[in-house]
Design a protein that fits this description.
Strand content of chain B: over 45%
Order of helices and strands of chain B: EEEEEEEEEEEE
Number of strands of chain A: 11
Mean pLDDT of chain B: 92
Radius of gyration of chain B: 13 Å
Low-confidence stretches of chain B: none
Shape of chain A: globular
Helix content of chain A: under 10%
Low-confidence stretches of chain A: none
Helix content of chain B: under 10%
Order of helices and strands of chain A: EEEEEEEEEEE
Strand content of chain A: over 45%
Shape of chain B: globular
Number of helices of chain B: 0
Largest sheet of chain B: 6 strands, mixed
Oligomer: heterodimer
Distance between the termini of chain B: 41 Å
Number of helices of chain A: 0
Structural class of chain B: mainly beta
Structural class of chain A: mainly beta
Amino acid sequence: EPEVTQTPSHQVTQMGQEVILRCVPISNHLYFYWYRQILGQKVEFLVSFYNNEISEKSEIFDDQFSVERPDGSNFTLKIRSTKLEDSAMYFCASSEDRGAGEQYFGPGTRLTVT
Amino acid sequence: AQSVTQPDIHITVSEGASLELRCNYSYGATPYLFWYVQSPGQGLQLLLKYFSGDTLVQGIKGFEAEFKRSQSSFNLRKPSVHWSDAAEYFCAVAKTGGFKTIFGAGTRLFVKA
């Protein structure tokens, strides 16, 4: 069964550094998403991406964050100048359809900012 | 604005006993509704979803959920819990034609022998 993959599984970075989290969505999916889950808290929507542009973003997704689909298979989340409070599990998801489509989640990348 | 409430932070059931996890949502129209399960350190696995039609939906691992519009609820049930069901369960809602999924705070299920 096709699945969403994410690399790395765990990333440790120092405060102020930039990190790039990588995702490979399911190949025939057209919609891509990032969510985050701070330890012990609920999963929160960050951003959705379709047709090479952001289709929706939350208030969390400020100028510190950016997303990109650099090629036909990868989908990345860049966090500039990381802060301690960026420590969280980041989940990538993809779906074939908008809204009605089931979102398939990757295993997540645990980001630890020290 | 859409929201999801899972009133129970954690629940403990005995192995073999039945299970019901509660979920209430707030949304102006019929939403898309989901239940996900997350084992410790793992990603989110979809258990089942409701888009339209029959209000009782069957999912994987023997789970089912019933959509009740009048109560704005989408409770998850399982007739007989197994120890391997111990995990965190998230109810979620998505807007028709929208992009994002809104998650509840989760209910942690403990299973005792």
